[in-house]
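Key result, reporting period 2: structure in, sequence out.
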């Protein structure tokens, strides 16, 4: 059973105090939200002027100093005049367009910001703020008549690899002194991926794993699924592969010969431990080398997996792979080094045919030997050491792994050719 109280249906037996409390709660929330919106337009300078005016007024009244009272009135008048600058519509129809959302380090990302007045009244001049990562750009927009639009072109320099959030666009209306400022956010942010530099080189077979779902190769096999030709029987051939029709026609025992189908399970282990690098430049070089090797493997239709401390980067396509590298940074807190990363790869990818470990010059030969010893059994190991102090690449052998030291990214193709020679 219910009863009507103050126009609201409430359960029977509810006291008037409880009813008033239920009605007051949403009203108080609306008042609080409105108060926050009003107070949010006051800038730090505005609070200083407001507090100063109040202090001068109270002091002037207590001491009877008319000069202080006049100063308080002047500051109050200044606040009122500045508040008039908040009047006006800011409901632009905002469009943010980046010509490319993926660029390489050093390239400039170009975009356009379009603001249109779709209303029936003019919009007074205002200021538009476009955040880009930790920075921001500002544009002064003229008065827009109904149906008029303004377009602002901008370019974003990309000096370092990163994932930058471009936007959301903020329309700012305020006074010239910066006492009050009203901000309305429009549109949604767009992610700009700044990919690491990579280098192209010819495809090289670093190691293969026989697999029935792989690609045919030029090497011949006695048993596989890609048929190549017929040949005479040799001791050890599987009799199930005998081709009886050709045997009856030639009078000799003929068997089927196949092409091996191969698949390369290519695993890249990139260390994020700051202790494995002498400086940040070595880390960037290691990321660029990892990107170059991964892209080459993907173009060769190999299965690529990328492991770093604490996560596995997406590597289904080249775009996903480079996007993951764009947001990579040094690991924070306590984390494993290149040795622990190699052990993690061995535990999670035991069927890998090629494992490439990348680190900096701070890793000594003893730790590299331990890391190579933890590579999955049967996999070919390659270690790429980023050392920006080198003028030429260096190649050495540690345990069963080739260790390649690079001083610059453009040294990778020639150095890798030496490894595969």
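The corresponding designed sequence is given below.
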């Amino acid at each position: 059973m219910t009863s009507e109280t103050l126009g609201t249906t409430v359960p029977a037996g509810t006291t008037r105090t409880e009813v008033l409390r239920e009605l007051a709660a949403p009203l108080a929330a609306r008042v609080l939200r409105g108060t926050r919106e009003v107070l949010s337009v006051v800038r730090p300078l505005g609070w200083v002027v407001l507090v100063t005016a109040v202090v001068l007024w109270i002091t002037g009244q207590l001491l009877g100093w008319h000069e202080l009272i006049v100063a308080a009135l002047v500051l109050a008048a200044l606040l009122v005049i500045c508040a008039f600058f908040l009047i006006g519509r800011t409901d632009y129809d905002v469009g943010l367009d980046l010509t490319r959302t993926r660029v390489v380090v050093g390239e400039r990302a170009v975009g356009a910001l379009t603001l249109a007045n779709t209303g029936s009244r003019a919009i007074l001049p205002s200021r538009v703020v476009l955040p880009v990562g930790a920075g921001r750009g500002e544009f002064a927009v003229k008065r827009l008549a109904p149906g008029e639009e303004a377009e602002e072109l901008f370019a974003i320099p990309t000096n370092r690899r990163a994932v930058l959030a471009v936007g959301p666009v903020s329309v700012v209306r305020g006074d010239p002194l910066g006492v009050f400022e009203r901000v309305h956010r429009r549109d949604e942010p767009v992610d700009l991926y700044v990919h690491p530099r990579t280098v192209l080189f010819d495809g090289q077979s670093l190691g293969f794993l026989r697999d029935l779902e792989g690609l045919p190769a030029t090497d011949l096999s006695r048993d596989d699924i890609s048929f190549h030709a017929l040949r005479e029987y040799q001791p050890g051939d599987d009799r199930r592969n005998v081709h009886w029709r050709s045997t009856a026609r030639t009078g000799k025992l003929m068997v089927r010969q196949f092409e091996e189908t191969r698949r390369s399970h290519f695993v890249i282990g990139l260390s994020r431990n700051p202790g494995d690098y002498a400086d940040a430049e070595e880390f960037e070089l290691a990321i660029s080398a990892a990107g170059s090797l991964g892209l080459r493997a993907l173009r060769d239709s190999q299965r690529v997996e990328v492991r770093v401390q604490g996560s596995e980067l997406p590597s289904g396509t080249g775009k996903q792979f480079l996007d993951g590298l764009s947001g990579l940074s040094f690991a924070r807190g306590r984390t494993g080094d290149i040795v622990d990363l190699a052990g993690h790869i061995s535990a999670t990818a035991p069927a890998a045919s090629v494992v490439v470990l990348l680190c900096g010059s701070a890793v000594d030969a003893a730790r590299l030997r331990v890391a190579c010893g933890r590579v999955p059994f049967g996999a070919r190991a390659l270690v790429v050491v980023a050392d920006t102090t080198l003028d030429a690449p260096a190649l050495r052998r540690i345990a069963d792994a080739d260790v390649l030291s690079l001083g610059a990214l453009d040294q990778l193709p020639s150095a890798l050719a030496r490894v595969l020679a």
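The first strand starts at residue 2 and ends at 5. Residues 277 and 283 are 6 Å apart (CA to CA). This case is discussed further under Risks and Mitigation.
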